[in-house]
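SAMPLE LOG
Freezer: B-3
Tube label: C17
Construct: single chain, 489 aa
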Amino acid sequence: MPNNNQLYYGDNLDILRQHVPNESVDLIYLDPPFNSDATYNVLFKTHAGDESRAQIEAFDDTWHWGPQAEEEYEELTRGRTTVEVARFIQAMRTVLGDSDMLAYLVMMAPRLLEMRRVMKPTANIYLHCDPTASHYIKILMDAIFEPKHFINEIIWCYETGGRARNSFPRKHDTILRYGLSEKPAFFPAQIALPRDFSTMHETIRIDEDGRRYQANIKGGKEYRYYEDDGVLPNDWWVDIQALNPAAKERLGYPTQKPLALLDRIILSGTQPGDVVLDPFCGCGTAVDAAQQLDRQWIGIDITYIAIDLIVKRLQHRYGDKIRDSFTTNGIPKDVESADALFARNPFDFERWAVSIVNGQPNQKQVGDRGVDGRIRFDAGMDAPGMAIVSVKGGQQLNPAMVRDLAGTMAHENADMAVLVTRSEPTRGMLDAAASSGVYQLSRALNRYPRIQIMTVAELLDGKRPQMPPIYLPYIQAKSRGDSKAVPLF
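STRUCTURE (predicted):
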């Protein structure tokens, strides 16, 4: 596949407007982040002003009413959209007030408008949500795509842990399918399920070509049902289960969807070479499915940890050569852009710095004791070795930082440590790191500095910490006897 696949780090609204041309996409799948685990009282609670948040989660799935939502509301209702969308948003403010639910709808509206712009006339859009907001989203999509272009409301049923005491268990999601015409692209043969003849009380017959079929007579006409033709899934899907905790494809991403679900959606509306867009790509299931099915793809996410996870996921599944098949955009490529990332979002800077040394960043910026991530490597034993990563984005550096890191190493029972700095370390820091000793595998003569200091400039130049073969982050390290283990050499 040519290098037409694109992975973007940033706000999907800006990226859609700046980088995705009109009528260029064949299918859109989106699973917008939404905090469905919160109580309804919280979702409809009104807010005054812009709340500061003490904790920043890697997979933040909550929308809040604040100045940004207010600004977007004004743009939507003052002529920068269609009359239908403006009226819908105004009506929702009357009903919902300045709530998180309204913030969700206000933030989704301009993004859905941009998605409509980039869709080809034959394209489909599949929006994945849950019953908390699906009824509001459906009306919003009616306003954007027109009610006559609504195709399906697909109910995805699944069994997961946990049962409600005061309500029927909530065990389904909603997937809304719209097009830009009454007949968008649809390829039923690509998603047909095996036909189960045991549910039909007719004799199994064989035609002149040797094909097995059953038949019945209606109105004097014979209708044949061939076994190898399969049957189209209904609009309620019970044959694809949510990922269980032990699933091989699970990556630890809280909203991860199974590949089988995205396979069905992509196959239903595209053919090889078509373009699939996921503007909230999360851990990259749609991207992975599109790659596997020989479709071109565009993935966008606003969290760096998601972008890094997708790169590692594709690399783990398809090998290092996969990096030549897509372009990653928005990631620092020089010191100036790294500094800009730090100024814009210090936590994302930390996660970027951890990932560039092939570590796994923390999911939360709280209580990290100076540990911003961890690197796991092949230590020649049943359990992998571990190095902790600490990132210092500020300019005030001193030897105490290295001594503190040595103490944290002991507390974490880590084998090694890497300190990443934006500016050059002091001579005292280098001396403190050198005095920390070396790490040596019992099976080899290789010796590695126990604490290593690396600058952002060095990392951007391609320099990496000295250590044994590293396991890809996010992918669970297999035992040494498992050929599927993927260390980085």
